[in-house]
Amino acid sequence: MNGHTPALMEIYGRLDAMHAPRGWHWWPDADPFEVCVGSILVQNTSWTNVEGALALLRDAGALNPPAMAALPPARLEELVRPSGQYRQKARKLGAFLALVESHGSLEALLALPAAELRERLLATWGIGPETADAMVVYAACQPAFVVDAYTQRIFSRLAIGPTHTADYHEWQHFFVAALEPDRDLWARYHALIVMHAKHLCRKQRPRCGECLLAGRCPGRDPEGSTP
Ligand code: SF4
User: Fold this and answer.
1) How remote is the CA of residue 83 from the centroid of ligand 1, in Å?
2) For residue 198, which of 51, 85, 47 has the smallest C-alpha distance?
3) Domain covering 32-139 in this structure, CATH number
4) Which of 83, 113, 118, 205 would be 41's cystine partner, CB 3.0–4.6 Å?
């Protein structure tokens, strides 16, 4: 905990007040394999496109490690096509499935201590820090604070955090150092950030007039009071 703790918890409370009733695909819980697959497929695309690919994988009975690993590469590419960059993403899924296989099962992989799991994920082709942390916190249910472009957008507008940089680790350290090491808090905080960025703190024309953070937000858009 440090001097930023009260501000971050106040923001959390207000985000919760605004967005708690909304559903989010990985909160409060989700199938661990779907989380892992989704966190790879969502790279460089929207969740809506990922949903299309997940639906095809589900219909094909491929949303479990052995079934997906048994698919011919061309078939996997076809199924993940709605998420874009489908050849590359099919290869990334293949690399992740090899990691799973090398540990015997997904359960065994996800049961590794968070730091070790993160290290092995990051050593896997196609998995970067954001993807690895999403798997740790939402699939393995262990503490990891996910940072993404939404996090940096919102907190830069609020003028809180290492706003001079886009470095993933600097931003992550800022939150981890200030918040209790509580998996549920970290998981829910990121979920609320995503919901806020999608519904109110949008890239263009943020809906500041509906935002409970407007009173403390230097980046508030004076014209952004209407939907
Ligand atoms: S006041 Fe506007 S810019 Fe600031 S956090 Fe809220 S929606 Fe985003």
Assistant:
1) 29
2) 47
3) 1.10.340.30
4) 83
- Taking the CA of residue 206 as reference, the ligand 1 atom at the shortest distance is 7
Q: State in words which class domain 5-24+146-216 has.
A: mainly alpha
Tens place of pLDDT per residue across the chain (227 aa): 889 999 999 999 999 999 988 878 887 778 999 999 999 999 999 999 999 999 999 999 999 999 999 999 999 999 999 999 999 999 999 999 999 999 999 999 999 999 999 999 999 999 999 999 999 999 999 999 999 999 999 999 999 999 999 999 999 999 999 999 999 999 999 999 999 999 999 999 999 999 999 999 999 987 765 44
* Reported pTM: 0.94
List residues near ligand 1 (CB under 6 A): 154, 157-158, 200-201, 206-208, 211, 213-214, 217, 219-221, 224
In the chain, domain spans: 5-24+146-216, 32-139
For the CA of 200, the nearest atom of ligand 1: 7
